[in-house]
Design brief:
- The complex is a heterodimer.
- By secondary structure, chain A is mainly α.
- Chain A has 4 helices and no strands.
- Chain A has a domain of about 70 residues.
- By secondary structure, chain B is mainly α.
- In chain B, helix 3 runs antiparallel to helix 4.
- The chains are: A mainly alpha, B mainly alpha.
- At the A-B interface, helix 1, helix 2, helix 3 and helix 4 of A face helix 2, helix 3, helix 4, helix 5 and helix 6 of B.
Chain lengths: ~110, ~180
């Protein structure tokens, strides 16, 4: 496995993560279902996690600081998903929809 | 294409599957298919972690993301009965605008990294990504952030329960409509 790595370059992971992040951003802009929006945000967080793990490998870090950051991002993502889904359930109970384009009452 | 052929085959196949899964998450009309595609994407990202010598991270990614968070999403989808194609998609002009903005972000970041130069990875020493090393670092260097995440988690859980709870008047109303 280590021989695979020595031919890999950090730029490949940068491009992969950038593509994943852009796909997530496209989803956030394009979709209207609030649950799918949350899922696209999870996708963007995962792109960042992958890049952090790749940079840990790139730096040859003995302390694995980048991998620690991935753990903390995972915790925050879990908390965010729990609160976000609770909010979506509450909105659904009041409006019978999870479509974000109907949530514009603050405009009036 | 010359640059692509120099890549190791496992990385190439895994990246292809990851991007394919991510695209299906975004474009699928059925939300349940989206969730399943996202779980597939998380599996391929875990495989990437194994390639990157982060073995414990790969297992945690599977357990926390694919196991816990995505099941939560699936539960909510089933609970709200959204498993059919209930979402009217935005019009074409929205799709074009979203594609242009995401493409611009991709272009800008790629262009910024183009000038940074290419470097081969140094590679970690053996056992950096195993639980022994990670646990030691977490309990010494990162002890304070670790405790703070505990507090964050408790407040998130209290908030979720508070938001998810029904009001008393609402319960009475729904019981009246049933009877």
């Amino acid at each position: 496995m280590l021989t695979i790595f020595h031919s890999l370059e950090i730029s490949h992971y940068i491009y992969l993560s950038t593509v994943l992040f852009s796909i997530g951003l496209f989803g956030v802009l394009f979709r209207r279902n609030a649950i799918i929006l949350l899922m696209c945000i999870e996708l963007m967080l995962n792109a960042v996690n992958l890049l952090l793990a790749a940079f840990t490998e790139y730096m040859g870090d003995v302390q694995a600081n980048g991998q620690m950051f991935v753990f903390f991002i995972m915790v925050v993502a879990a908390a965010e998903a729990a609160v976000g889904l609770a909010i979506i359930v509450m909105v659904y109970r009041n409006t019978r929809k999870t479509d974000v384009s109907f949530l514009d009452q603050l405009k009036d | 294409m010359g640059a692509l052929s120099s890549l190791p085959l496992p990385f190439l196949i895994l990246s292809f599957l990851t991007i394919l899964g991510a695209l299906y998450v975004v474009t699928s009309k059925n939300p349940v298919h989206s969730v399943l595609a996202l779980i597939f994407t998380f599996f391929t990202i875990s495989a990437h972690y194994v390639l990157l010598n982060a073995q414990f991270l790969a297992v945690v990614n599977l357990m926390v993301y694919a196991g816990a968070i995505m099941v939560l999403f699936l539960f909510v989808l089933m609970l709200l009965n959204l498993n059919k194609e209930s979402e009217p998609l935005k019009s074409n002009i929205w799709g074009i605008a979203a594609a242009i903005s995401a493409g611009l972000l991709l272009l800008v970041i790629t262009a910024a990294f183009q000038t940074s130069g290419i470097a081969v990875m140094k590679g970690n020493a053996e056992g950096i990504g195993l639980v022994k090393n990670l646990g030691r670092v977490l309990m010494t260097e990162y002890l304070v952030p670790f405790e703070l995440t505990g507090i964050l988690f408790i407040s998130a859980m209290v908030g979720a329960v508070l938001l998810g709870k029904r009001d008393k008047s609402e319960v009475v109303k729904s019981e009246e409509t049933i009877s």
